[in-house]
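U., I forgot to send this yesterday:
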Amino acid sequence: MYFVRGFVLALHIFGVIFWLGGLLMVTSLLARVPEEVGLPKERFLGAARGLFESTVNLGAAVSILLGLLLIILDPSVLRQGWLEAKLLLVAILLFYHVRFYRRIKFLENHPSHSSSHEFRVIHWMVSALLIAILVLTVLKPF
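Result:
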């Protein structure tokens, strides 16, 4: 049983890396969009949407499904306060995930309605959530 849980945990972490790494890559890519004009701007937006739809969504799905499986394998973890705080942060991350995807779709039709500052703020938010989730998971402070 310990081997199964360890294997699922390793795949869960891999999914998290895919998810958050993809989000950080897309925000970095989109921070360059306001500087571009014409076809390069459209290509940046297309690349960002493609990366989001493949890597980011897949990473989110793997992370969430395997996270739920980890809880099923050890339901006693639900009584630990650190997990409740982590799940709250993951819910906030999911909110930003959906909101960010809608923003990309909007920008495909209105590419001039963006600023590099906007995507740097999103990048900072994702980074802050990642650090907070890691601290909660490793230190288990509650």
